[in-house]
Write a structure and sequence with these properties.
Elements: H1 20-29, E1 52-53, E2 59-63, H2 69-73, H3 84-103, E3 108-119, E4 129-137, E5 143-152, E6 166-177, E7 190-191, H4 195-216, H5 226-239
Parallel strand pairs: 1-7
Antiparallel strand pairs: 2-4, 3-6, 4-5, 5-6
Length: 243
């Protein structure tokens, strides 16, 4: 039986196996409060930021749902369908592994956003799932975009995934911070080598610019216009139907 604490075990094996509360206690005994910002940076200013290939950060993992009924039990809802929320917990952990492979040590990477979620083919049968992804957009600043896909795992290990077997795709935006100061730190840009990588990079760049434009007109900057107010009111009325 493959145990899971909410995230598939293989995705957390890279972590230091120390309970969070024990790590916090140890820091406090050293006179350090990890929740507070520090003026002393932990990330070396002269670390290597040589451009990296997209393939360098690629990572895949197979969740053997069809082989392990006890593991499957963690992923099913009362109707016998896969809980997408549980899958997204795994995808978030996978993004952390991919980000680590790109940034290396001495930085803390956090999830900033998840978007472009596309369900290509709904899962209609119980099968092993292959989760895979890589960094597809990074310019040398603090953020990166990671493209992820969920697919039916090929029956032969290492075989390519067919287009019709891709169940879902999405993009995670991750930001790297100094563990002490909590300020953004620069990371290596990605190196484009193929036309497909150029397409993925361009898509990430477009998404990055769109977010910047939307931030200028967000609710923190200005009040909703008439059209937005009507939409918010309609959504509020709709949610009353569920109470």
């Amino acid at each position: 039986m493959l145990q899971t604490d909410g995230v598939f075990k293989e995705l957390t094996e890279m972590r230091v196996r120390t309970p969070w509360v024990e790590a916090l206690k140890k820091k406090q005994e050293e006179g350090i409060d990890p929740t507070e910002k520090s003026e002393i940076a932990a990330t070396p200013s002269d670390r290597d930021l040589t451009p990296k290939r997209m393939a360098d950060s690629y990572h895949r993992v197979v969740i053997p749902l069809a082989q392990d009924p006890w593991l499957l039990d963690n992923y099913l809802n009362a109707s016998g369908h896969i809980r997408l929320g549980t899958i997204f917990m795994d995808l978030d952990a996978l993004s952390g592994v991919i980000a680590y492979k790109h940034t290396g040590e001495s930085v803390t990477t956090v999830t900033a956003a998840v978007d472009r979620i596309t369900i290509n083919h709904p899962l209609k049968e119980l099968c092993d799932l292959e989760l895979s992804g890589q960094v597809t957009f990074a310019t040398g600043r603090s953020s990166m975009e990671i493209s992820i896909q969920v697919a039916k795992a090929p029956k032969k290990g290492g075989a390519p995934v067919h287009k019709e077997d891709v169940l879902m795709t999405c993009a995670f935006t991750m930001v790297s911070l100094d563990p002490n100061t909590k300020k953004p730190v620069a990371i290596s840009p990605v190196k484009i080598e193929t036309e497909e990588e150029k397409r993925l990079f361009t898509l990430g760049e477009k998404n990055y610019n769109t977010k910047k434009d939307r931030a200028k007109t967000g609710l923190r900057k200005q009040t909703p216009n008439d059209e937005e107010s009507d939409l918010i009111h309609a959504m509020w009325l709709r949610q009353l139907e569920y109470h």
